Prior knowledge:
about 775 residues, alpha/beta, Aspartate Aminotransferase, domain 1, Aspartate Aminotransferase, domain 2, six-stranded mixed sheet, 24 helices
Amino acid sequence: MTNLPSTAKQPLSLIYLDANATTQVLPQAAAAALTAMETLFGNPSSSHVTGLQAKQIMDKARQQAKKIVGAGEGKIIFTSGATEGIQTAILSTLINAKKTLNNTNSKGKDYCLLYGATEHKAVPESLKHWNEILEINAEVKAIPVDELGRLDMDFIAREVPNALLICTMAVNNETGVYQDINLLDKTIRANNANIAWMVDCVQALGKQDLNLAQTSIDYAPFSGHKLYAPKGIGFMYVKENAPFTPVIAGGGQEGGLRSGTENLPGLAALSVIFDMLTGESEHSFTPVKTLHLFHQQIVAALIKVFPNIVFNHCFENSVPTTINFAIPGFSSKEIMDLFDAANVRVSSGSACSSKVTRSFVLDAMGLPAWQSESAIRMSFGPAMTQVLVDQTCSRIVSAAQALQQSCLTIDINSMDEKINADKAELDGLMQFKMGGSCSWLYVDNKTKTALFIDPLPEVTDRLQTLLTCRGLDLVAVIDTHGHADHISCRDSIAKTCLAEQESDCLGWPANAQTTNIDGNKCQYITLGDKWLVKVATPGHTDDSISLLLCEPVLNSTEALSVHYAFCGDLILMDSLGRTNFSTSSAPDMFTSLQLLAKLIGTQSLICPSHDYNNEFTTSLSAEMSRNLLLKQVINDEISANTFSMKKFTMDKAIIDESGSEIMCGALISTCDKKPVHEYDSASLAEAMKQSSAIKLIDIREPHEYALQHDENFAENVPLTRLVQFVQEHQDYKQAPLVLVCRSGSRSHLAAQALSRLGFAQVGHLKGGYALHQY
Ligand code: PLP
């Protein structure tokens, strides 16, 4: 409990649609677990009455499990979960294989270990682990899947004769795609009668009928927490006579196959779930037929509000409880943030690896990269109800409406007046970030005109939607230079929005006017009551320009009043643009830096075309305090020659660490992040009690804020508008600010950025609303 005000006047009830990750423990299962802790708490190995009662619970659960999975003469061994079952199956097989290899004087490296390419990571990682520990040195090979996620039977037929073990899964956790177990059985056995076969059945329990003894499957791990039992309880099926080596030795529990005192509360809960599965409980699960209807209803709701939605799997060969999709133009993080704000828990359905967030499952199915990067998974279990499905559908509608209010999507047919009236204001600067690159949109709301600088292809659609939705006219779309790291989409935007406009190859309009600024002839265009002045600033490339959004120049001798300097790759945060391209010139950069400094001064905000380090914006004064070379140039302390020499050394340090992304400048000091004050809810409440001056700022995007907020609690300054906030608060840097977001990660970045730019009392709520909401 927290003593902070709630983020919503009427908090939305939670809708949990992430059952493939884990499930809540059902009340009746929790009650059984509690009884097993408080009353029937015996050790099943004890021979007194309390022990016998405990043993009865365990025996019942084992008989139920046998029945549910159709174990026949096979064994059921209770484990801590599926990962343990997977280890046990792999270890048992490999130890047995090692014996055979030793006896026949064969080498493990002549064999392979097969696993499906879409398998849960627990499988390939365990295969590699035990293969190495046991020094078998077999080749670990992924079985490819087709675009529907089905295993390649030809590959299996070819490889299985030479394999020591084959691991497949019944149902995939990301897509719900199920495999044809009978076909697999035939293919495997036709080509290798004796090979050990493990089938990960975690996601199949409760969603598919199982009859394991009717198949030649040797091992099948299961997990309780995926089906409303607590975490820490699972079980595995082992075919009679399948090789077995206990992973845990000790007191000889589970017939010596898995030692350690049994998890009786877990077993008691599991037993209740088993009763529900077999229909022997007053509480029953929803039949699979009805789950299909639920699936159809949710899919229909998604299609209605996101007409361009793409589903990442075919429903024909998937269980009905998993829906994996992508919405063009939105990253999975954005959709997750949106649904989280609507209090609907979904998963990004992807695995994080270094910088790129994408799904290896969808990659293996050969889906386009954007689908894999934008994947969202909704999953539910057989406890799903019609009421919850209805609530889910209406929550999907409100999430989509919030996107429309933010003008991130547009559906002209269904845009009702309320949405139009509620549209969040957009006036000023907006930053679009994609990886390390930035695009900038400047809007003058009064004249309904806009300007787009350094347009990235990934944001083109979003920009077009924004312009249409807000009725804005584009005045110009301009690149600050010919970009080497990405293809500009300037031409395509100009063709659509500025067909009549003549411009140079960077997009600078031919009808620009000329003025004299401090002795320099400069061209400018107008946007509302502001000017956009173009200044040639070669160096990074020979065509580089800087665009200065400033107050109109009434007197050519007066200093410019610059709001934003879009300087491309001349000055980057904590860096200078590289000068080792064929059209680069370090001496030109030297001159350009001195000119820019003269025109914009030390405090104007610099908006570069990259932000590798999540710092949003900067100023000359902020950069000079950490970039000695820049300081020396601006203060005229070094010659152009010395600068060029130093720049040459600096550029040599540029490492293309992202693989696909060309770094446009070498970072000078990557660990320059300032520590900021981190509040928890208690310390924030206390600080607010002490000082009424503390201003809370919710930096989530407007669509998230619209779904759940209390304007009395925090004002909304979306991260995409942070640079404008800095510009508007240049004279209020002493005010105490506390930033808040969903998880505390965006607020942390933004607080660090503000602190670096001189905001003296900025902190953030650690853990965000996620930890402090209720
Ligand atoms: N296999 C699959 C398909 C899963 O979805 C999971 C859980 O995410 C596991 C294995 C691991 O299960 P546990 O958490 O019980 O170890």
